[in-house]
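User: Continuing from earlier, I have the next pair ready.

Assistant: Great, send them over.

User: Here they are, in order.

Assistant: Folding the first of the pair now:
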Amino acid sequence: MQYTAKQIAAFLHGSIEGDPEALVDKLAKIEEADQLSLSFVANPKYEEYLYSSAASVLIVNETLQLNKPVTSTLIRVNDAYGSFALLLEKYNELFSPNGKHGREQPCFIAATAKVPDDTYIGAFTYIGENVSIGAGSKIYPNCFVGNNVLIGKNVLLHPGVKIYHDCTIGDNVVLHAGVVIGSDGFGFAPLADGTYRKIPQIGNVAIEDDVEIGANTTVDRATLGSTNIRKGVKLDNLVMIAHNVEIGENTVIAAQTGVSGSTRLGKHCVVGGQVGIVGHIHLADGTKINAQSGVSKSIIEPNTALNGTPAFDHRSSLKSQAVFKSLPEMQRKLIRLEEMIAELSGIADLQNVENKK
């Protein structure tokens, strides 16, 4: 299906520079775009492609200043990245393969489960006792939903999702393939003989509305109470959330990050990949943690940026890294200064001896 630049600009409330009748029928990265492609430029690193791109239409920020002529039709918007994301969302609605319906066989749905007629249930899925599922949800093949689980409206469980007993899932939640919700927290008591006794994990996981969790991420159930994933949280693939953790509203966490037990992250935090966060600490709202950092203590001041292991103030960390790279040269200079001081001291000693004569 083809659309004109004029139609797209109207949808995005943008202004056109170029041919309003320019046609597009696909979306593409700007460095790969060809005729009939629609792409965008939001990052200054990609502005060089503006002048060589064959894309029919490009979405750009209103503030973008052109250095050379472009052949593409431009749609200027307030936020190019956000506008392109809106187009992707619309494209997904129109052409997504997720439009499944009905109940595939074989599957098991307990007699006490409440499953609306419009819920898609994929083959080899298990729905336990007293489960409640909201309208418009889709559960793809090989999913497991344990007893007493509550699932909200318009929830999407991709293949192989496992939700243990008593957990709750809000509205508009997306769980990608292999996600495990409510597995036991890592609780073991050391005994005098060197062995360990398992501590029963009798809490649950409570996920609020509009959360998306990436493939093979795990969220452990609480020892007591709930592990809480608040509204709007986004977790990447391969993230590990331990028992009794709380992730504040609209916090995002990148892949391979681990959050230890009973730690609380505030609202609007941004956590890079491969970050390690110890247990029983609190991170203030707006905390930003650079990739591969290790956080070992609470952060009280909101909107703090952290870097390194152990993590500390981001700017101080960058300055320290610059100094660290200069250490060999600084050492050579220090040795030379010591030699010069020794030489000067020797000369001074000789002068003192001469003066005494």
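And the other member of the pair:
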Amino acid sequence: MQPDVDEQLAGKIPLPWPRIFLTFALLFISSFGLFMAGSNHSNLPVFDEKIYIDGAKSILSHGGILNPEHPPLGKFLIAGGMALAGDNPLGWRLAGMLCGALSVALIFLWTYLLLKDHALALTAALLTLFNNFIFVMSRNASLDVPMFMFTLSGLTAFTAALQCDVRIGLRRLLLVLSGAAFGLAAACKWTALVPLCATWLVALVLLAWYMFQRHRMPVELCIPAKNLRNCGLVYLVFSLLATPLTSYTLAFIPVLRSTHTPFSLAEVVRIQYAMWTMSKQVLGNPAIFSPWYRWPFQTTPVRAYSYLIGNPAVMWVGLLAIAVCIVRLWKRVSLPEALVVLFYSTSLLQWAVVPRKITYYYYYLPAAMFLSVAIAIALSRGQLARIRGVRVSFIVLMAALIVFAFCYQQMAHLSPPWDCMLGCWS
């Protein structure tokens, strides 16, 4: 007999946690192996890698931060990889590969928490892996992959606090971990503040709806809203405001110690003002400027960045999936559709207001990663799941794998004649 739907929504059906954690571990290990394979083929810095590599070298030599326009955590992670593996291509990119592999596994876990469907969650993770973005950027020293990994960690912990049937103490701990992860994400790159604000929006809407219009809420929203309310508003403020500020601030301690500056809140505030001033003055490279509104439809690879281009089988099907989720939200509000639409749209539209003179295509990474989750959510309901008895998720996954295999030869910097064994971009 199938379990009652309301019971399942309430999280009272025992979840197969051993199977979930085994899949999580296997996804992490296999993704890391894929990123590691041939990582030394690109033995020279790619795109703006040199900026962060030189910054990491300066950290290791206790020379301070060479590029202080960004928060320090991402650069310290790169330096940690170099301390472990040396000043070589593996050392430069080790932190990115680890964070990228964790991101793939976290996509699985977050999707599972939303849908409680192992097959669709695994599909979302594999589509993320084959979407080119995470492969290319994990194999380059950058701040974006660590930032996204911490952001996704915060979002996963927040969703677990909403969805899982756990004791109040563990639920509150999950909220604290969520806030800490968002703070660490912002300590890599300030753009992580946008998903933190989106998380606050979700929390406030759920609480207000539950308090004032509870009789009109769908059952599947009543349960996370009740779970959130049971934690208490004061604890929510502590978890998603005080905790992120604390973890963000603590990330600056190594910077101050490396420059022999005593730690103080006034000094941290001064650093923030200096970062804000410098970030507005960064000119970048106008030759490869790419406006944000073109990113979802880009078809030309960025040759300077390891032929970076989103996998069309994921990117375009993902846009259709976002449209499906929006239509469903118009008819009936549901948490999975609401979250994926909110985090995709805010990750993209923030660039319409962020005061940067130059934007690059790789800034699309966070938004692009949510497209695979949107596909899984779109296929979780209605008549979209199968075509003539074949699962649509399997068709999309095979298409993504084929395109990824074609792109791999140049993304991975294979040497001739392997670089064009399946054909080359003109």
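Worth noting for the second one:
DSSP finds 18 helices and two strands in the chain. The longest strand covers residues 386-387.
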